[in-house]
Amino acid sequence: MEVDIEALIDGKPQHFLMNLNKDQLRGWQVEETPFLELPANSDREADAAPALRTVDKKQGFSLQRFQSNPADFQQSRMRIVTVQGGIADGAFVGVDEEGYLVLQRHLGGGGTASYRLSPQSIRSVELLQP
Predict the structure, then answer these.
(1) How far apart are CA 20 and CA 33, in angstroms?
(2) pTM of the predicted model, to two decimals?
(3) DSSP secondary structure string, the chain?
(4) Radius of gyration of the chain from Cα atoms?
(5) Residue 45: is its pLDDT beyond 60?
C-alpha cells in the first residue's frame, strides 16, 4: 500500500511517498526507504514541550541513545530488527553478562520467550511504549 506523507521539517513543507506491507506475523511495516535520520538539533529540542522531554521516552529515541544507556529503557516494550532481517519484539530486560541485549516476550499459555541479541547484529530499534 502506498501512503502519501506531508510533513513540516525544519519549518519547510515536505512531501513523501512511503510503501507499507502487511505481514501475517509482523503486522504493518514500512518498506526500506532512502530517507536519512534527521540530525540532532538543539533548537528543535528547545522548542519541545517540557512535559514531553521528561515523560515520553520515545521523544528523541535512537539506536545510539538506547545502546549508550540501556538501563533507561528496562521493561520498555520494543521491536528490534537485525541486520539479517529478523525481528524480536518484547520487553527489554537488560544486558546479560556477555553484553547481549535481552528481550522477553510473553506467550499464550503462560510461557515466555527470550531473545538475546548482540549489539553488532542490530540494524534498528523501535520503542513501542515506555
Answers:
(1) 11
(2) 0.52
(3) -EEEEEEEETTEEEEEEEEEEEETTTEEEEPP-SPPPPPP-HHHHHHS-HHHHHH-TTTT--HHHHHH-GGGGTT-EEEEEETTS-EEEEEEEEE-TTS-EEEEEE-GGG-EEEEEE-GGGEEEEEEEE-
(4) 17
(5) no
